[in-house]
Automatic annotation (TrEMBL):
<dbReference type="Pfam" id="PF00331">
    <property type="entry name" value="Glyco_hydro_10"/>
</dbReference>
<dbReference type="GO" id="GO:0031176">
    <property type="term" value="F:endo-1,4-beta-xylanase activity"/>
</dbReference>
<feature type="domain" description="GH10">
    <location>
        <begin position="66"/>
        <end position="366"/>
    </location>
</feature>
<keyword id="KW-0858">Xylan degradation</keyword>
<keyword id="KW-0732">Signal</keyword>
<dbReference type="InterPro" id="IPR044846">
    <property type="entry name" value="GH10"/>
</dbReference>
<dbReference type="InterPro" id="IPR017853">
    <property type="entry name" value="GH"/>
</dbReference>
<keyword id="KW-0326">Glycosidase</keyword>
<comment type="similarity">
    <text>Belongs to the glycosyl hydrolase 10 (cellulase F) family.</text>
</comment>
<keyword id="KW-0119">Carbohydrate metabolism</keyword>
<dbReference type="InterPro" id="IPR001000">
    <property type="entry name" value="GH10_dom"/>
</dbReference>
<protein>
    <recommendedName>
        <fullName>Beta-xylanase</fullName>
        <ecNumber>3.2.1.8</ecNumber>
    </recommendedName>
</protein>
<dbReference type="GO" id="GO:0045493">
    <property type="term" value="P:xylan catabolic process"/>
</dbReference>
<keyword id="KW-0378">Hydrolase</keyword>
<keyword id="KW-0624">Polysaccharide degradation</keyword>
């Protein structure tokens, strides 16, 4: 017997994600141009157009051959298709001219070889600072900021296609939480020369270095202050490709209503939205009175069975609601594992020992299950045509030992593709 209520819920959900699904007809031909008529073929999805991402930090040693993290790599690739790699200047260039370029480049190649899209984070930020810059004159600081942007984008062009150009600029001019008591150079530059000129110059340098790159501004302050900054940048003629929104929910899931109200506020600018840093805990929540999340780092912060059940439920709700919103183009979960997690919080999808939490399986079931076309057998008609419906993204069709790649790039029904050579 059919559960009519379940069917109605499914149909309603399908309607809410219609902008993520497309259908097309492909004519398959061999190398000579002859149609592959009445042939059994297999069609499978290889990547989403939507960015399902996570940090790639944890796999940098593995990619460089410094440790064997094969199980972690398998779990990472089992869900995600977009990796964020670290370019925090204090870590990337702890001494002037001494960089981690080779190490991060090896990791970028490792991910790219496996079909993973890459983003660099961040090019300009006042935190995780290079202390050697702090005492320099502002003119020299400005030149170093610009040359750093040009150097990194040039070195990684063709590998990294997206950059958080400026990170957390709302608080940048007034940031004073310096562990060594020395004001950081970036905050001084933003305060004395102005945030908008700093950001404008940074975006212009990045655009010149790679006109095809996707350039983001990114922030955790999702108040009206961020809206005012974005409006000021747009009025100043700064071309922003996407708006980055951080949602580290260490104090509890915001809920769909609050989250979508926030997303709607930033969607009004007509720019793609990337949920760049997302965290949901599987243990005790951070007290609600903590203002700066960095101020709460207990000695022990374990994952618990009750917390893991809550995390899995909230993660599914979070992803469903954001995928249903047409302005959202990417969600990056901030760390797949509890091992080495930010603030020591149990926010990963894997426990510190590498075992999977329920949230991992729940997210995988969505990304590589419900929202994915698994290998599917089809038969072409007498003209070699086959009709494919699925989530927007990259696909591959295989006939015997031959195959060809294609894309479902637009929602709805497309016209007939140009003949697809399967060879």
């Amino acid at each position: 017997m059919v559960d009519e209520r379940a069917a109605q819920r499914h149909a309603s959900r399908d309607h809410r994600i219609a902008h993520r699904v497309g259908e097309l007809t492909a004519q398959l031909v061999d190398a000579s141009g002859a149609p592959l008529a009445d042939r059994e073929v297999e069609v499978t999805q290889t990547r989403h157009a939507f960015g399902f991402g996570s940090t790639g930090f944890e796999l940098i040693p593995h990619a460089n051959g410094e440790e064997d993290a094969s199980a972690l790599a398998e779990d990472w690739l089992g869900v995600f298709d977009t990796a964020t790699l670290p370019f925090y200047r204090g870590d990337f260039e702890p001494e002037r001219g001494v960089t981690r370029t080779a190490t991060i480049r090896a990791a970028a190649h490792w991910f790219a070889d496996r079909g993973v899209r890459l983003k660099g984070h961040p090019l300009v930020w006042h935190t995780v600072k290079s202390r050697w810059m702090d005492e320099l004159p502002l003119d020299e600081v400005k030149d170093l900021v610009q040359s750093r942007i040009r150097r990194e984008i040039d070195d990684f062009r063709g590998l990294i296609g997206s950059w958080d150009v400026v990170n957390e600029a709302v608080i940048m001019p007034v940031f004073e939480n310096e562990p060594d008591g020395v004001p950081n150079a970036i905050s001084r530059l933003a305060r004395e020369r102005g945030r908008i000129p700093l950001i404008r110059d940074a975006f212009a340098e990045a655009r010149a270095a790679d006109p095809d790159a996707v350039l983001l501004i990114n922030d955790f302050d999702l108040s009206s202050a961020y809206e005012c900054l974005i409006e000021g940048l747009l009025e100043a003629g700064v071309t922003i490709d996407a708006i980055g929104l951080q949602t580290h929910m260490h104090q509890g899931y915001w809920g769909e209503e609050t989250m979508l109200a926030m997303v709607d506020r930033f969607a009004r600018y007509g720019l793609p939205l990337h949920l760049t840093e997302n965290t949901l805990l599987s243990g005790e929540l951070m007290p609600a009175d903590i203002v700066d999340l960095n101020d709460y780092q207990p000695e022990s912060w374990p994952s618990t069975p009750e917390g893991e059940a809550r995390q899995a439920d909230e993660l599914v709700r979070h992803y469903r609601s954001l995928v249903e919103h047409p302005s959202v183009q990417s969600i990056t979960y901030w760390g797949i594992t509890d091992k080495g997690a930010w603030l020591g919080a149990p926010g990963g999808l894997l426990r510190a020992d590498g075992s999977r939490k329920p949230a991992y399986d729940a997210l995988r079931q969505l990304v590589r299950g419900e929202w994915w076309l698994s290998p599917t057998r089809m038969r072409t008609d007498h003209d070699g045509r086959v009709r494919v419906s699925g989530f927007l993204g990259d696909y591959r069709v295989t006939a015997g030992a031959a195959s060809a790649a294609f894309m479902i790039g637009r929602a709805g029904s497309d016209a007939l593709l140009a003949p697809l050579v399967v060879a």
